[in-house]
């Protein structure tokens, strides 16, 4: 073989080698099925918020030198994970060729107590490939988000003891649900409604102190509900201001919660009974019950009336402390004047008290219907022995009954007489009379001989007495009959003897005049 031939063969072989290598390189660049990757340009999410999350979805091969087939009718569904709730539905993307990128934006709700660190959110991708347009292919890929490790807070519970129209404590318990402690924390409150205030302000601040991860702290703030407030939740926003482990100042997201006031403090009155009577002192009694949801102290029942003829001796009765559902009895001593009229009357009762905060308050008016009885005599007086001989003397005995509802004492009876009756002892005395009790009182009495036998002559008596309350009163005047009877022993009645004597004296006078003419 010649040198020229050898060179030619070697050159040909080199050419074939180069062409083969080129064909080998072309064969190595493969075309794959659609393949999807995700990327999140802003992966940090904030706990306790609702925010937008944008995920970039790309159809590309795993190897840079390779390519992918186009995907048709692409649909992407971002799914829940790690407590993160996806509030948006499936997104229609359409055709995605090799290397194509589409942005998928959804709304997510991130829980306040989500753990710090990274979280993988699944994305379901559905599409049709180029080889079989009738088949729907599903693939799940994941997008990575990150929660910063820091102090985070959540409201654990709210307990309110503030009634409508009053003030009370609101206990708010917060928990550090983050991974880092908070120091020098302050809880700032902001009311969203003028019916709920903190004192006279819509804002309030309370010191919390340090909170380690998962530690809770209860903060108490005084809330005031207006008279027009309702028994429903009132929105309050709170923010925790604190220092991080690095000493930097930080603030939490807004923590919103509701405050439900207690119903307005109420009372009920039952068992009303009245011994009121025109012209007398009587009582109005009953039972008051705490129908509210809080304990009241230093409570008194107030009696109110616009009737000038009705006067309570004391306008208030102390009943002390009343827990919810507890009851207490009360009694008002009330004087009804002679000018009053009998019949049903409407009075008003109120309960004045101090609430758990020590503020004095007065409850709503409570209707108190009561009957005022007809006027009656303080005493019933009847004659036991009421007959006297004309021209003679004897005793007058009266039975005296106490008609009042209460006892009387030191009862002094005074007798008033007109001719032909007279008395050298016109006063009587009874030491005490219980309600309904009867005792006798006796007077010495004389009847002139000029009295007509069989006729009844009036005698009057009244009583000065002392009530159980220590008041001295004078009763009405009572009239009792005294009957003249004939003298006993069969002789002439003294009246008749007197008449005869007058006749005799007249005759003697006439004879004397005639003789001296």
**Quaternary structure of the protein:** single chain
What's the name of the CATH homologous superfamily of the largest domain?
A: Immunoglobulins
Task: Tell me the fraction of residues in β-strands, as a range.
Answer: over 45%
Put simply, the count of helices is 2
Distance between the termini: 235 Å
Overall structural class, as computed from helix and strand content, comes to mainly beta
Structure write-up:
About 10% of the residues lie in helices and about 55% in strands. The chain is mostly beta strands and about 525 residues long. It folds into five domains: about 30-145, Immunoglobulin-like, CATH 2.60.40.10; about 155-260, Sandwich (Immunoglobulin-like), CATH 2.60.40; about 270-370, Immunoglobulins (Immunoglobulin-like, Sandwich), CATH 2.60.40; about 380-485, Immunoglobulin-like; about 495-515. The strands form nine sheets. Strands 31, 33, 35, 37, 38 and 39 form a six-stranded mixed β-sheet that branches. The longest helix is centred in the N-terminal third of the chain and has 26 residues, at about 5-30. The protein is rod-shaped, with a radius of gyration of 55 Å.
Task: Tell me briefly what this model is.
A hairpin with a 4-residue loop joins strand 37 and strand 38. The chain is 9% helix and 54% strand.
């Amino acid at each position: 073989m010649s040198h020229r031939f050898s060179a030619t063969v070697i050159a040909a072989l080199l050419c074939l080698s180069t062409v083969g290598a080129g064909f080998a390189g072309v064969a190595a660049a493969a075309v794959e099925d659609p393949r999807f990757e995700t990327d999140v340009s802003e992966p940090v999410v904030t706990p306790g918020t609702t925010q937008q999350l944008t995920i970039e979805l790309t159809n590309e091969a795993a190897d840079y030198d390779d390519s992918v087939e186009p995907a048709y009718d692409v649909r992407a569904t971002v799914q829940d994970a790690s407590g993160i709730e996806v509030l948006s539905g499936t997104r229609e993307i359409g055709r995605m060729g090799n290397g194509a990128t589409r942005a998928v934006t959804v709304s997510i709700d991130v829980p306040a107590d989500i753990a710090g660190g990274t979280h993988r959110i699944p994305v379901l991708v559905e599409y049709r490939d180029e080889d079989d347009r009738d088949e729907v292919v599903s693939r799940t890929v994941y997008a990575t988000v990150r929660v910063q490790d820091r102090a985070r807070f959540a409201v654990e519970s709210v307990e309110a003891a503030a009634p409508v129209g009053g003030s009370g404590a609101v206990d708010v318990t917060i928990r550090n649900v983050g991974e880092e402690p908070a120091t020098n924390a302050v809880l700032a409150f902001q009311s969203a409604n003028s019916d709920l205030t903190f004192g006279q302000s819509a804002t309030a601040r309370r010191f919390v102190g340090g909170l380690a991860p998962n530690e809770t702290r209860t903060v108490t703030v005084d809330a005031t509900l207006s008279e027009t407030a309702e028994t429903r939740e009132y929105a309050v926003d709170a923010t925790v201001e604190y220092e991080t482990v690095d000493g930097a100042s930080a603030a939490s997201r807004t923590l919103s919660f509701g405050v439900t006031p207690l119903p307005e403090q109420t009372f009920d009155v039952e068992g009303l009974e009245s011994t009121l009577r025109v012209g007398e002192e009587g009582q109005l009694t009953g039972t008051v019950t705490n129908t509210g949801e809080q304990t009241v102290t230093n409570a008194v029942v107030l009696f109110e009336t616009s009737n000038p003829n009705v006067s309570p001796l004391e306008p208030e009765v102390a009943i002390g402390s009343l827990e919810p559902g507890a009851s207490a009895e009360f009694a008002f001593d009330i004087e009804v004047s002679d000018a009053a009229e009998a019949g049903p009357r409407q009075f008003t009762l109120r309960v004045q008290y101090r609430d758990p905060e020590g503020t004095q308050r007065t409850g709503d008016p409570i209707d108190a219907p009561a009957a005022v009885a007809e006027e009656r005599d303080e005493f019933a007086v009847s004659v036991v022995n009421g007959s006297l001989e004309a021209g003679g003397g004897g005793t007058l005995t009266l039975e005296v009954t106490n008609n009042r509802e209460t006892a009387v004492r030191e009862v002094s009876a005074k007798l008033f007489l007109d001719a032909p009756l007279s008395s050298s002892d016109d006063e009587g005395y009874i030491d005490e009379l219980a309600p309904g009790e009867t005792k006798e009182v006796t007077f010495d009495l004389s009847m002139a001989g000029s009295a007509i036998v069989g006729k009844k002559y009036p005698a009057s008596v009244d009583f000065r007495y002392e009530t159980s309350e220590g008041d001295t009163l004078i009763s009405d005047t009572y009239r009792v009959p005294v009957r003249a009877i004939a003298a006993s022993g069969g002789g002439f009645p003294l009246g008749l003897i007197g008449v005869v004597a007058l006749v005799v004296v007249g005759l003697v006078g006439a004879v004397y005049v005639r003789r001296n003419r």
